[in-house]
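#data-curation
PF: Archiving a pair of folding outputs for the training set. Convention for this channel: one message per protein, sequence first, C-alpha cells after, nothing in between. First:
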Amino acid sequence: MYAVFTYRRKKDRRHFSGTQQSARTTVENTLGVFRRLKKQLKKGENMRCPYCGSVDDKVVESRTLGQGDCIRRRRECLSCGYRFTSYERIEEKPLMVVKRNGRREPFDRAKLERGIERSLEKRPVSMNEIENIVSDIEDAAVMNSKSAKEIKSTELGEMVLARLYTVDKVAYIRFASVYKKFNDLDEFINEVKKIHEHL
C-alpha cells in the first residue's frame, strides 16, 4: 500500500480521492514518526524513560569507566524529571554481586541508592550529592570487578562505608549498624569510639 501511494503521489496528486488523501496523510505521518525514532535510536541521543515511558531526555553527565571499554551516562527525562543511568559497552555479561551465602544477583543501582538515602535521611546532604556518591561507588565496583564482572557484597558494603565516613559520620553509623548487624549497644558504642579516635 505504501508503494502505491508513493508512486501515485509523484505521478499526479490530483488522482487521490478524499479518503485516499486522508489515508496517505496518516501513513506519511506514521512513517515520519518512525523515521524520527529510528534516527534518535541510531544516534543514541534518546532513551525510553523507565518511569514514564517518554523518549525525550537529556544527558546530564557522561563518564568513561575502566580502560575506556564502557561509558556511563546519567540521563534526565524531560517529561517527568526522573533520572536514570544508561551504559554504552561491548556486549558482555552484567556486573554480578556475590552475596554472603554464595548466591549471585545482578548489581542493582536503585537498591544501593535507597540504602544510602535511608542512611542520609534528614542529613544536610542534597539529592545531587547522593547521586554522585552512588555513581562513584558504582564506578568503583565496575572497575574492581575486572574481567570477572563479579564483586562480593561485603566489598561493596565496605565501599559504601568508606564513602559515607568521609561525607557524614551519622550516616556512616546508621549504615554500619545495619551492614555490620550490631547485636548490642556495646558494638554500637565501640563503632562511635572508632570515629572519635580518627577525629
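PF: Second:
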Amino acid sequence: MIKSMKARGYTIAVLALLLACAFSRDVAFAADPPYPNSTTGLQKLIEGTLVAVKAGEKEKTAAFVRSMVLPDHESWFKRTFGDEHGKALATSFSKMSGTLETELAKILEKQLKEGRSVVRATRVDSEDDENASGLQKGSLKAMKEKTPSTA
C-alpha cells in the first residue's frame, strides 16, 4: 500500500512538474485549437483534456497531453534548475516520458470517477505564495531561473 501511495505521489508530482513546464513556455499550447500561454489557457486545456478522457477519445486525449510536453526538456531543466539538478530531473523525465500519455489519462479518468471534474488553475510565482503546494514551494526554491508554477 505504501509503495502504491509513493508511486501515485510520484506520478502526481511529475504531472505537476509537467504542467509547470508547459505553463512556462513562451508559446501557446499546441492543442487544436491552440490555447494561450496563460492561467486561463491552461485551465481550458485541462478541461478539454477531461472532456476527451470522459468521451473515451484516446487519440484526442493523447494529442492534448503531447501539447503539454516540452519539446526540449533537457535544456529547460538545465536552464531552470542548473546543471546538476537539471540533468537529474531531465533524466527522470526522459525515463517516464514514454508512459506519460497513458499515466496522465489514468489519473484524469480516476479524478472523473471520483467526481472531480472542476478545474481551477492558479499561477504561483514564488515559494512564499499562499497558493503554493509543498511540491511547488520546493521546486520554486530550487530554481536557478524562476519560472511560474501552477496549482
